[in-house]
């Protein structure tokens, strides 16, 4: 069995009295494109900073590619990290960025970087500060990929891009995954982008992991149940109510079958990725899923 790309147990990060991430337990297999979804302040950037070794946990355990993040130069070389707003140095040219990347990274693939810059049509002499948002994002992606890492981490890389630049970035990202055989963790507010490129999902809200797993498995395990009020009170063991809505005559439930047995639930309909994510976010903001006893009331 291959080493998980990211493994955490009760991972917690506090800043004074503020808890940025609480008790996060995750186990992400290698080879996945992971979508990390949640509102502002949910803990996404904190988790990615912990994974990249920029900060240390307050408590709990984290391993990236089987080792402590930023343990040494070899571990650093295995991880490519692009922070929010795809940061580049405005006063440096495109060529300067490639030279700096080569100087700082022992596994740098200069031929790959220069070929990609040429294919993108970027002028090596042009200052990064004069590039468009999409071009800056592509430059940052090129530098991260040219390290030849085993893991690429992106913190909201496309949030500020227009739809065409965002599509081009995500298309290139998928190409890199196929070409470089690299795992990816991608933080995003845009569920549509996650649905398009990701095969694994982590939903963070209120500093806690709400749900995580392969997207195909999660969608197969979440259902919408609709029935006359009172007929959905007794659910099988292992079926958790995530959200409930009642009228005088009808009950609608969103449920998660945690048994792994793909239980046959009468009247069950599938739940789309956006509906599933929004249900968890809605619940985390204060509308806690009811117990069965509360449902009967």
UniProtKB/TrEMBL annotation:
Pfam families: ABC_tran (PF00005). InterPro entries: AAA+_ATPase, ABC_transporter-like_ATP-bd, P-loop_NTPase. One of its GO terms (molecular function) is ATP hydrolysis activity. Keywords: ATP-binding, Nucleotide-binding. SMART domains: AAA. It comes from the Bacteria. Residues 6-231 form the ABC transporter domain. Gene3D superfamilies: P-loop containing nucleotide triphosphate hydrolases (3.40.50.300). The keyword Calcium does not apply. This is ABC transporter ATP-binding protein. It comes from Glycomyces algeriensis.
């Amino acid at each position: 069995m291959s080493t998980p790309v990211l493994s955490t147990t009760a991972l917690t990060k506090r800043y004074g009295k503020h808890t940025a991430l609480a008790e996060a337990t995750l186990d992400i297999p290698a080879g996945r494109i992971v979508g990390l979804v949640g509102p502002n302040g949910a803990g996404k950037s904190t988790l990615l900073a912990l994974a990249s070794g920029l900060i240390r946990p307050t408590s709990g355990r984290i391993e990236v590619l089987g080792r402590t993040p930023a343990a040494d130069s070899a571990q650093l070389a295995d991880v490519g990290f692009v922070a929010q707003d795809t940061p580049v140095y405005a006063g440096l040219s495109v060529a300067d960025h490639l030279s700096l990347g080569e100087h700082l990274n022992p596994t740098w693939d200069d031929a790959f970087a220069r070929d990609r810059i040429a294919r993108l049509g970027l002028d090596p002499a042009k200052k990064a500060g004069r590039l468009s948002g999409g071009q800056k994002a592509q430059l940052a992606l090129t530098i991260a990929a040219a390290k030849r890492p085993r893991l690429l981490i992106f913190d909201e890389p496309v949030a500020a891009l227009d739809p065409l630049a965002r599509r081009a970035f995500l298309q290139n990202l998928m190409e890199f995954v196929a070409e470089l055989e690299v795992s990816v963790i991608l933080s995003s507010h845009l569920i549509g982008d996650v649905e398009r490129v990701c095969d694994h999902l982590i939903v963070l809200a209120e500093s806690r992991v709400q749900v995580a797993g392969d997207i195909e498995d999660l969608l197969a395990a979440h259902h919408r149940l609709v029935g006359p009020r009172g007929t959905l009170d007794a659910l099988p063991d292992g079926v958790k109510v995530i959200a409930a809505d009642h009228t005088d005559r009808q009950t609608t439930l969103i449920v998660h079958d945690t048994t792994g047995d793909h239980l046959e639930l009468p009247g069950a309909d599938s739940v789309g990725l956006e509906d599933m994510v929004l249900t968890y976010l809605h619940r985390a903001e204060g509308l806690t899923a009811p117990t069965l006893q509360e449902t009967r009331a």
